[in-house]
Amino acid sequence: MRAELKTIFSSDVDIAAYQSVDPNCDGVWLQLGLGPVGAIGADNFQLLACTPAWLQQLVERDGPMTGRHTLIMDTLDLVEARRIIVRWITALDAPTWVEISDKFGRYAHSEFEDYRPFKEGRQS
User: Fold this and answer.
1) Rounded to whole angstroms, how far apart are CA atoms 88 and 107?
2) pTM for this one?
3) Residue 32: inside a domain, yes or no?
């Protein structure tokens, strides 16, 4: 099974028109819709695209942080970020959609990360 990028947007900026005030020190959260090639529908993923200088400012302001689900670029370039994301996605191959989603979850946060379906008879 193969995957494709169905949608990419940001709740914070218009990524098609975004011009960073300082592309060497910036960060943007991206929302990604990823689904099986040729199929309707997608699962949602979140990824932070940012620069090392922007992260450094956060650390100086807030203290130490973790770094999962982050694309770190020398210069924030959302066109290049999209190319990188598409390259990651086209490299994915697995027998099932769940396995594809789990693999891509190493790059971006899946809406289903840590999801455990309810099982009847199980006590809370």
Assistant:
1) 8
2) 0.87
3) yes
Classify residue 81: in a domain, yes or no. yes
DSSP states of 24-70: TS-EEEEEEEEEETT-S--EEEEEEEE-HHHHHHHHHHH-----TTE
Query: What pLDDT digit, counting tens, does each position of 69-124 carry?
Result: 999 999 999 999 999 999 999 999 999 998 999 999 999 999 877 666 666 555 54
> Considering the domain boundaries, does residue 117 fall inside one?
no
CA distance 32 to 112: 13
CA-to-CA dists, residue 6 to 34, 37, 56, 89, 108, angstroms: 5, 9, 32, 11, 15
